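Risk mitigation, structural track. In case the binding assays with adenosine-5'-diphosphate fail to produce interpretable data, a predicted complex structure has been prepared as a fallback.
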Amino acid sequence: MALNRTTPLPVDPGAPATGAQASLYQQLRAHLAVLKLHDAAEHLPAVLDVAATEKLTVTATLERLLAIEVNATEARRLAGRLRFACLPTPATLEDFDYDAGSGVDPHLIADLATGRYLESATNILMIGPPGVGKTHLAVGLARKAAESGYRTYVTTAADLAARCHRAAIEGRWATTMRFYAGPTCLVIDELGYLPMPAEGASALFQVIAQRYTKSSTILTTNRPITSWGEVLGDTTVAAALLDRLLHRSVVLDIGGDSYRLRDHHARTHTLRAAAGHV
Ligand code: ADP
Ligand code: MG
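Fallback model:
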């Protein structure tokens, strides 16, 4: 609500004593409110108190007040980016265990974590069997991208195909394509787990093609690229898609045993050993 400057302003309990000072203080609060600098407004009395006790200069006082607003704005923006990103798990790069036998190079991940690949619209393809940490790494990189200020979105190949299918039916194709073109970092998880209808493969191709050379796509799959013709139901579409995806890309071949089944394997091993089978 905009305040009318001619109306008397309510006196703030924490406001300075003299009438002139009090009205100046109220004007300042009103300015902050009009500019929607709510965090600065809220912390104004405390900052003025500190300024008085620590004898801060005007510059230092203003810096302190505006830093509060800037920090709060950045925190809000980060929360917004993380909400938009739809990260499916709390996975972070920091809690990835490089000694689990996946063969992932920690230096490569550390380099990717800097986000430099996003500046050159480099794609990342992660190939490997189920349970080796593909989604974990993809979500970890997506989280880093969002934290570094990049617009980020995580989806699965199946969800992307389903959403594009609905969009085509409801006449929202162009809007949906723009949506997938938007994020600087787009993760498309789990290509190959579910069969893709021809229409889904074509939607995926269009998303990759329109992002080509403009922004990075991180794609994970359990299928080697030699079988993508089969995955996408069309060798020409598969070749065209791979052409764009791999042109500027980092390919992570992730191996090893399933992390999910690790405990299961360990238990089985113990049982077999106990039974004298190992
Ligand atoms: P994928 O996508 O390759 O099938 P996930 O990334 O979903 O596998 O991993 C399965 C589970 O195991 C997840 O909970 C994930 O956090 C965990 N996981 C897999 N690999 C690792 C690893 N190297 N370090 C820590 N956790 C891992
Ligand atoms: Mg996965």
